[in-house]
Design brief:
Helix content is about 20%, strand content about 25%. It is α+β, with helices and mostly antiparallel strands and about 270 residues long. The chain has a single domain, classed as Metallo-beta-lactamase, Chain A. The strands form four sheets. The chain has a seven-stranded mixed beta sheet with strand order 1-2-3-4-5-6-7, covered by helices on one side. β5, α2 and β6 form a beta-alpha-beta unit. α4 packs antiparallel against α5. The longest helix is centred in the last third of the chain and has 16 residues.
Length: about 270
């Protein structure tokens, strides 16, 4: 049997003789099904792809797949004294990737921001003997489960010393970010996926219900997200797809939220 993988979002389904009729993650209003229709692949078939490892900063390694796969997810490996934490997950897991991650100390915990990064999280967890942390509010999207998947509740979860998972919501009900206290030379880093997303302007971020379909969030939700993120001290922010705010990231999040809310509240002229 094959553990089918959706090429559009990268999520892996439980092993079956035939692929599912639809991908539940893509076939809803935050994502999309390609115009040509639903297709499927598998890890075994992804022979044309490989993973690229990039030293993002000391003790932080980016892992990305090339050629681009799924939504172009990036995983970030936080190397912490209490155990390495993989932030978000990419679909491709092969022998080379396993060897390179193990050479860095393996993985103790996998923390996922939201369903567009579930990908092959069960494969990663079982390969490295790690726990996967998915917020319970997004449990319905976890189509392949395992005893290693923990559906956590509440708003804050300490993973290891200096590494904390926080639920902000917005993009998904359980959308989360990861605070790494030792990041940015001890000034703190926030790893956000696209719960909070970097934009081309280096001093701004944004907040969306759907990025591919350009659906905004309401002002009250953006205000709440910014307040929850602002409870942490962080100088740097790492978003999805290689985005980063190198300095002043906490202020950028708070100011971006006010800018967003002001734009939604702009009165009609005349």
């Amino acid at each position: 049997m094959t553990a089918w993988v959706c090429p559009t979002c990268g999520i892996q389904y439980p092993p079956a003789e035939r692929p599912p009729q639809r991908c539940v993650v893509c076939d809803e209003d935050r994502q999309y099904v390609r115009r040509a229709g639903q297709t499927w692949t598998s890890l075994e078939a992804m022979t044309e792809h490989h993973n690229v490892f990039t030293e993002v900063e000391p003790d932080l390694v980016g892992i990305e797949t090339t050629p681009r796969f799924g939504i172009g997810q990036r995983a970030l490996l936080v190397q912490a004294p209490g155990g390495n934490v993989l932030w978000d997950c990419i679909a491709l897991l092969n022998a080379e990737t396993v060897a390179r991650v193990r050479a860095r100390g393996g993985i103790a915990a996998i923390a996922i921001s939201h369903p567009h990064y579930y990908t092959t999280m069960v494969e990663w967890a079982e390969t490295f003997g790690a726990r996967v942390y998915v917020h319970a509010a997004d449990r319905q999207w976890a189509v392949r489960t395992s005893p290693r998947v923990e559906f956590w509740t509440g708003d804050v979860l300490k993973l290891v010393d200096g590494v904390t998972l926080a639920r902000l919501g917005g993009h998904f009900d359980g959308a989360a970010v990861l605070h790494w206290a030792a990041g940015a030379g001890g000034r703190g880093a926030l790893l956000t996926g696209d719960t909070i997303q970097c934009v081309p302007h280096r001093d701004w971020v944004s907040f969306m219900y759907s990025y591919p379909n350009l659906t905004p969030l309401p002002a009250w939700e953006v205000r709440r997200i910014a307040a929850a993120a602002g409870a942490f001290a962080f100088e740097r922010l790492y978003g999805a797809f290689g985005g980063m705010i190198e300095t002043g990231a906490r202020e950028a999040v708070l100011q971006s939220a006010e800018r967003y809310i002001a734009a939604l509240s702009r009165p009609q002229p005349g």
